[in-house]
Design goal:
The structure is a homodimer.
Chain A: H1 4-11, H2 20-31, H3 34-47, E1 51-56, H4 59-72, E2 79-83, H5 84-89, E3 99-105, H6 111-123, E4 126-131, E5 146-149, H7 154-168, H8 175-214, E6 220-224, H9 227-244, E7 248-251, H10 253-256, E8 270-274, H11 280-293, E9 297-301, H12 312-315, H13 319-338
Parallel strand pairs in A: 1-2, 1-3, 3-4, 4-5, 6-7, 6-8, 8-9
Helix pairs in contact in A: 2-8, 3-7, 4-7, 4-9, 8-13, 9-13
């Protein structure tokens, strides 16, 4: 067996793949879309709607789940999450010409999303698209009612839509103060999370890489709830499986206790994501259980990060972004220790299927 | 290594753990609840409601997902699925005193469900409970508005509620003919599926057991969509993980193509469940992909079973029951080959956590 440890000693870079300026600018660019978003939501509000559906596939489905759970306990607005492929087959009888579909696509040509747009157009519903890449299929006229072309920050964009909808519905009295705080502090707070997590992330990545090298068959388990569930699900599937080709399983904290717990043994690699939203207690329950049966678990708790300038009551709404910042650091070192460029794919978009 | 093959040759029982009469009687007992269910739904309908929420945890959450997807494309009734633990933490602002919670519990004392009932009572919503075990916490007065105590057939019960709601809403014109057909043929059709699948299931269980013995770390992958998703999710987690202690991962067909596909290799054990509801095409896409990258896949397609007396247009509504019948046979032989009584648990309800 080769020695991952040696790689670390010889090559360990400090803050590998880290461009502080770019990260700050990107988050602020995302937050800077608020004016455009509010104008569009004002129009949607004025026109009236019977449902707001965040619809995605893969990573964008995960982001859709995050924004839905963000609103579910705070607002009685009819905000729902849908999977694009399910919408295209089963459909949704409650989705009408008065319904609004909110979607996001990085490539601007994701197959299921292109077909989703056609279907929503047939029904006569409204399409509000966030597309990262200009001059793509989904930025063509007739493919949207409202369009914002801007790279990255998918979750921020979705949450900004939801937050403004909740504000207009009277569910978000501190909306202005909240945005002031985010616009002033969020970008730097997230960059500081990356810096604070970096050394730990390098060690964690080495540990996980070693686990993987020793037992490549063994899945790495990720557990998380609330707005961490989308993070947990997509991190396991869209990062470790898709980009690193490492087996994973993800499960919510509450469902963990109804089956999956039985296959956790003393040396099973388990990572628990704990955030600070309403479902934090579900993560804490797993945190109490794990040490009793497992010696190879890791807990990443967003509470441990400072988040300068973000008030206590607002921390929970960005827990998923904090976790993403931590995992950015993990990914940078996983790529290095695995010697596996995260951009390569075995099958995805490599041939027709 | 011990020889599972020898066990098969020496011990292979025909139709292990199979009581045809008991199976038929049980399904017919479930279907026989229709009169009681309709009477309760009539009252709920008369009182009016702003939402019908099927709420569960673990296996009952899976059944709730199945009934929701069964109605989503057919009816504009406000029928939703919720996870009990999420309802207890995040809550749902749209769930009001005019909302109805439909739940099921085998034990009659599942922790999350007991607390769910308290929470719904606080809100003032209506509780319609199916409890398998008499004289339990959840059958006590004050813990329900409507109660049916009857063992097994959770999915049938949920679907009967949904079907009658859809009938009353004008979404199910063939309701009477449908029930006539089910009441006349379903029980025997399902028993015939078990008989038809038995020899295959024995071989499949031997193959899977051998895979597990050779590479115990390797997860067994289960893929399925539509009303098969609840079956896929709960079969992987509540049967293989919880009852057999075999690692699994379950994923929907549509999401499989957005990450998980990358970790399928030539010898990865993958089982695809294909049903006959609106999402069948999503399963067929996976069926086209798998053979190109994997030589250790199995497809279980409900279409291959006769289902005497069930019309073509109704087959899709019972695909999950057909799959359950097939898997009953698989489980019987897995238990034998693994020498692992399915009733034992490492941790579940063994100590406080």
């Amino acid at each position: 067996m080769y020695k991952a440890e040696l790689w670390k000693e010889e090559n360990q870079p400090s803050l590998r793949n880290f461009d502080e300026r770019e990260l700050i600018d990107s988050v602020n660019e995302g937050l800077g879309l608020r004016g455009k978003i509010e104008k569009i939501v004002d129009q949607i509000w004025k026109d009236g709607f019977d449902g707001i559906y965040f619809i995605g596939i893969g990573g964008t489905y995960a982001s859709s789940m995050q924004v839905e759970v963000h609103t579910r306990g705070k607002s009685n607005l009819p905000i729902f999450v849908e999977n694009a492929a399910q919408f295209l087959t089963t459909g949704n009888k409650r989705f009408t010409k008065n319904s609004v579909c909110i979607l996001s696509s990085v490539s601007g040509n994701t197959e299921e999303i292109v077909r989703l747009v056609e279907r929503v157009n047939e029904i006569g519903g409204t399409i509000f698209s966030f597309i990262d890449t200009p001059n793509t299929v989904l930025t063509q006229e007739g493919r949207y009612d409202y369009l914002i072309v801007s790279p990255k920050n998918e979750q921020l964009k979705f949450f900004m839509v939801a937050n403004y909808l909740m504000y207009k519905n009277g569910d978000f009295p501190n909306y202005n103060k909240y945005n002031e705080e985010m616009e002033k502090h969020l970008a730097v707070a997230l960059v500081e999370v990356e810096k604070a997590a970096d050394a730990w992330a390098c060690d964690f990545a080495l540990k996980k890489t070693t686990n993987f090298h020793e037992r490549p068959d063994l899945p790495h388990y990720f557990i998380g709830s609330g707005n961490q569930w989308g993070a947990t699900y997509s991190y396991a599937m869209c990062y470790w499986e898709e980009q690193m080709w490492i087996r994973t399983k993800s499960i919510t904290c509450e469902e963990f206790f109804h089956g999956m717990q039985e296959i956790v043994e003393w040396d099973t690699p388990v990572t628990l994501f704990i955030g600070e939203d309403e479902q934090r207690s579900l993560g804490e329950r797993v945190a109490r259980f794990l040490p009793k049966v497992c010696g190879n678990y890791t807990i990443i708790d967003t509470k441990e990060f400072k988040l300068e300038g973000i008030s206590q009551e607002n921390r929970g709404t960005i827990s998923h972004l904090v976790m993403r910042a931590v995992n950015n650091r993990v990914d940078a070192y996983m790529e290095h220790f695995l010697r596996h460029p995260l951009s390569i794919r075995r099958y995805y978009r490599q041939f027709d299927y």
